[in-house]
Write a structure and sequence with these properties.
Blueprint: H1 7-16, H2 19-30, H3 35-42, H4 46-68
Helix pairs in contact: 1-4, 2-4, 3-4
Length: 71
């Protein structure tokens, strides 16, 4: 399920992401852009953006689990 996350931990986790992962998550969640709009900005297909979002979320989840020591 979804757990409440403190903002500082989220920012720390985002800082540990690779640049491309951080970029795609920032555009999607913080800039509220859609997949099509992101694909145009990054010059990638919408499917490539969806894959990038999936991988970035997975990477972020692993970092957050390490921060909170979730097993």
């Amino acid at each position: 399920g979804i757990l409440p996350v403190d903002t500082l931990a989220l920012h720390r986790a985002m800082a540990r992401l690779g640049e491309s992962s951080r970029e795609v998550l920032t555009l999607y969640y913080f800039e509220n852009m859609g997949v099509k709009e992101i694909s145009e900005i990054l010059s990638k297909s919408p499917d490539a953006v969806k894959v990038a979002l999936f991988r970035a979320r997975s990477e972020l989840k692993k970092i957050m689990e390490a921060i909170y020591e979730i097993r």
